[in-house]
Amino acid sequence: MSVRKAIQDVTDRIAARSEQSRRAYLERIDNARDSGVRRATLSCGNLAHGFAACAPSDKAKLAGTTAPNLGIVTSYNDMLSAHQPYATYPDLIKAAAREIGATAQVAGGVPAMCDGVTQGQPGMDLSLFSRDVIAMATAIALSHNMFDAAVYLGICDKIVPGLLIGALTFGHLPGVFVPAGPMPSGLPNDEKARVRQLYMEGKVGRAELLEAEAKSYHSPGTCTFYGTANSNQMLMEIMGLHLPGASFVNPGTPLRDALTREATRRALSLTAGGNAYTPIGHIVDEKAIVNAMVGLHATGGSTNHTLHLVAIAAAAGLAITWEDMSDLSDAVPLLARVYPNGMADVNHFHAAGGMGFLIAQLLEGGYLHEDVKTVWGTGLSGYTVEARLIEEALEFEPSPAVSGNPKVLASVTEPFQASGGLKLLRGNLGSSVIKISAVKPEHRLVEAPARVFHSQQGLQDAFKAGELDGDVVVVVRFQGPRAVGMPELHKLTPALGVLQDRGHKVALLTDGRMSGASGKVPAAIHMTPEGADGGAISKIRDGDIIRLDAEAGILQFVGDESEFLSRSPATEDLSAEHYGMGRELFAGFRNLVSPAGSGASVFG
């Protein structure tokens, strides 16, 4: 299968741009492979420490040199719904490994925080940095040199990107990502949003709001809206790092367990000791990264991945840019309508045909590279299937030829729109990204006076005081990675939504994040350079006219540009935001972090 010229052009320029860094990366992981993951290279004392707690039968296998050992890196905790199902996975994985004469050990755990819990709280300032902490924790888990392959148990916002960055530093090891799945559908997402907005307007109280939230987030599993967590799962499958059809099977079901057992067998079949050696560093190449970006656009996925994919690619020796993403967005049709880009949730998406149908459509249209390596041992056409449990046996059947719900999942010949869900904005204010798939066309152009805030609370106070009663571009600055760690700013959403519903032209401009829950109000986010670096966002004053044109990709100050650029940047004393809830521990991260366009990474 050949891909369209627009897709191939972006792939080729990534490969050319990354030629030296990719070659150096491949040489490193090939050298690591040649050095071998050989427990025999460990001293007797090393090895004895490594299997001291194992059962006698596992000790006997680990003492030898032929039986493969699988490392389990887990993000389990029982506070967060998405990660609670992982409690039972290690025993399931160990049993599946023993059935084929192998062993498995929990190599280590990584932290897993939830932006839903920390939203609007000081702890949110640690959220983005947690990705790089997770990457480092993954490296520590695998550093014992006891493992021939690994499985990675993670699902939510920063956890999967962090695990993948860490896994790529051990790129000579095969690796399979193992999801836990979404919770069953609860209160419809549009009803939850309606109650949030009523609460913001003072029309319902906290009891009604909490009841609605609890009905939405009600059981083990991932939140069902199409935010970063579920965008992660789409990415892992379209990059060939999941088993086919694994992304959106609910937790606690026989099919979910069967997929986990099969993921164990697949990981162990890919080791250097066999005939199908497939290290993760060879899977994640420029074609896989382009496939990931295509999937993101085709589904209207999370804006967080404009950061994460840059950082993931860099870990594999690949350099991608927001321009690459924007050019692909112009070329890729939108095929999914999942909240906040529609009323359906991921369970409805899965029932309509899910990932198998989506991948089949994108392949048919020439939007994906089929000739890639995957953990399934096929090209990407091996992912145009659905996982089924038939008489207790795991089977993979062809995905449906027709969408089960064209209002949720469209065909490539009748897309929801001709271009994807993300857009790069550029102008005299710098560079920014916007998620436009959830923004109605009539709201994609806003030219209005600015109102400047340095916190979410400042905006909320002004809204409650009735100070925002006309067209406005709300500017919330000093929220970037160097300033405070680039928190998500979803507490802004209800107020801005109310203003838009009142008939005003409304937009948001910020150097912070909004992520996969970016909704109906146009939001120019990840503004680079950020305010703390003296970027143009720090020169905006109340009343300045700002033009945001999402269709044309324009974001600019309207007026005397030379006068605007000559202004001294505003400053803000952020010292109070650097202490409490552990934020003082991340001073080094704030000093090291790269700009948003470079992935907001502390790894350079």
Automatic annotation (TrEMBL):
GO BP annotations, alphabetical order: D-gluconate metabolic process; Entner-Doudoroff pathway through 6-phosphogluconate
Keywords assigned by UniProt, alphabetized: 4Fe-4S, Carbohydrate metabolism, Gluconate utilization, Iron, Iron-sulfur, Lyase, Metal-binding
Species assigned in the record: Arsenicitalea aurantiaca
Cofactor note as given: Binds 1 [4Fe-4S] cluster.
The name this protein goes by in its record: Phosphogluconate dehydratase
Boundaries of every Dihydroxy-acid/6-phosphogluconate dehydratase N-terminal domain copy: 68-380
Gene Ontology MF annotations: 4 iron, 4 sulfur cluster binding; metal ion binding; phosphogluconate dehydratase activity
Pathway: Carbohydrate metabolism; Entner-Doudoroff pathway
Residues at which [4Fe-4S] cluster binds: C156, C223
Catalytic activity: 6-phospho-D-gluconate = 2-dehydro-3-deoxy-6-phospho-D-gluconate + H2O
EC number: 4.2.1.12
Pfam families, A to Z: ILV_EDD_C, ILVD_EDD_N
